Amino acid sequence: MVSIVVALSRNRVIGRDGALPWRLPTDLARFRELTTGHAVLMGRKTFESLPARFRPLPGRRNLVLSTDPAYRVQGAEVFADLASALQACDRDCFVIGGAITYAEALPLTERIYATHVDREVDGDACFPELAEGDWRCVEESEPISENGQTFRFTVYERAR
Cis before residue 58, ω within 30 degrees of 0? Predict the structure, then answer.
C-alpha cells in the first residue's frame, strides 16, 4: 500500500529553503514510529535536506527519485521515476516528500498520515490540495502544543 506522511500548515506549506518551517519532536517521533521497518520514498532534494547523521534514514529502505542518471548515494536506492520506485517496493511504501513527489504519488495513495500545524507559514514547497470527496478522515488526535506550535495528527483514507 502506498501511504503519504506529511506535516503541513493551514496554507499547505511543507517546507522553506529546503527545511521544515517548524521543530516538532513529537511529530518526528511519530514519523519514525510509522516508517521504521518500511520503505520510504522521497525526491532527491528531500533526501539531501535530511541531517547528514540521518542520511539515509536508519531502519528503513531508502528509495530516492532523481532524473540525473549518474546520481548515486550510499545506503539508498535511486530511481528515475515514481513508477519504477513503487514497483521496487515489496510491501508498504511511505512517500515522505517533497512537493513534486507528493503530487505525483497522490493519485496512487491509499492513506495519508498528516500532521496539521495550526498556523499559516511562509514557504516555497506546498502539499497538493486534496480533492473534496476523494478522502475521508478516519482518525484525528486532540490538539498537541509544542515549541509554540499547536498541531494534530490526522489519518485519511481514500474514499471508495
Answer: no
